[in-house]
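Case 473 in the screening queue. Each case pairs one protein sequence with one candidate compound; here the compound is magnesium ion. For every case the pipeline is the same: read the inputs, emit a complex structure as tokens, and attach any notable structural observations.

Predict complex for case 473.
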Amino acid sequence: MPNQCEGTPENASRILGFLQEALEPDAGLVLVGGAVRDRLLGRGGGDWDLATALLPEAVMARAKKAGLRVIPTGLQHGTVTVLLEGRPVEITTYRGDGTYLDGRRPESVRLGVALEEDLARRDFTVNAMALPIEAMGRSDWREHLVDPFGGQADLEAGLLRAVGDPLARFQEDGLRPLRACRFAAQLGFGMEPGTLAAIPQRLEVAQKVSVERVFQEMNKLLCGKDAPVGLRLLERSGLLDLWMPELRPLVGCVQNRYHDLDAWEHTLAVVAAIPAEPVLRWAALLHDLGKPGSRSLGPDGAAHFFGHEALSVRLAGNLLGRLKISRALLEAVLGLVRHHGQRPSAQWGNAACRRLLARLEGDKVPLDTWAELRRADIRGRKEPSEAMQQEFETELQRIRQLAETKPPLVARDLALNGTELMDRLARPGGPWLGQLQAHLLDQVLEHPAVNNPEDLARLASEWLASEALRARE
Ligand code: ATP
Ligand code: MG
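Case 473 output:
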């Protein structure tokens, strides 16, 4: 479980100062990795990664002596977890990595190396800095940073640069290229050209990363403050094609006069315009997957994308299924993709608005979530039109007010349930019942006032009679 370093840097230095005292001065206790990077960026919220010169057994003995609870979470990798004011903090002995054989993890680790060697095994220069705990509370803490690879300079320049030779580092561990794109998205950073150039040459190693890990990284990338930066890097480096080849045809897929961006650029703009939350970001990324495959030219030479939503749903389902995402996320994303093309306008009557609500309800898509994608879809144009945005908000308001009157939207909202309908018509159940309910719902969406037992019973008898007639014809 990652521990969150909430609160102020002062709080952090107080809590960690206590640990420093418990472990004694020769422990060489330092904050490393993301926590140092984020402190320099004035960005809080990540976890604390600590490193020490002590071997894990010594960390355990000294921490226990000071009355701390200690859990040997990963002794073979040199990691011990200590509970500080109820929160778990991982302390790892400075270590060097042995040979990487499987393209993901070292076969062995060497404990008790120098701090510099520990930093050298880390992925990017901005992640390869250490801050001694004893310096944390000082005003001149920056001067005490251990920064052998120029991490601070890269941080200032907004660059992700592999520590050492990127080709070798990406050969060792195929996850690193994806992490680089993820950090670029989270931090809004660029990639140093040599680091970027190495990725296409190491795609075979990247391909070995488990899909669960890929999904975790992709999720973080998509929810990053500058997700399009990460997505562009995936596209340019070829990583996109490993896990999400369905997105490739969007690049250069020219749209019609309503869309001045190609489908890929439009997708990036929609991702940027939607709140940074997984369901919304995935739906934004995948909503137009079906466009290239459904493109046709009308008599006037304009491109059309009839039925692209259904194709988007199918392709998005394949893509997300491969990434083994949870059922809940899958259904929420596909529901949004399925209905993203609905465009309510002032010409829509209330019945049409209720039908939209019914479709959303049927797929358990909350109106406000749907509205976020619609809104971002409108804003994701080269020149978003004020008028369109305004019209959408007006119509949304009308639909919201209709929804507040709680009109019947699904079969279970009907004033007669299945058993009652069978009783009223004196017929045993069968496929006819579902058809009848669909018919009644249709009537009720048109005229909510008929949703009472008497009217429904009458409509049901009429329907039955017309069905019988049809059967005789
Ligand atoms: P965040 O926790 O904000 O996602 P982080 O930089 O702390 O970012 P972690 O995955 O928590 O990332 O890893 C902690 C540190 O361990 C990193 O900063 C980096 O120094 C090192 N690290 C993590 N994964 C790798 C890897 N695959 N290769 C090399 N070093 C790594
Ligand atoms: Mg971390």
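Case 473 observations:
- The chain has a mean pLDDT of 93.
- The radius of gyration is 29 Å.
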